Amino acid sequence: MQVTAEHCPAPMPPPGSRGIDEILAAARGRLDRLDPERAHLAGRAGALLVDIRPAAQRAAHGVVPGSLVVERNVLEWRFDPRCPARLPQAVDYDVPVVVLCQEGYTSSLAAAALQDLGLHRATDVVGGFAAWRIAGLPALGPTPLHRPFPLASPVTAGRARR
Question: Is 51 within 8 Å of 62 (Cβ atoms)?
Answer without folding.
Answer: no
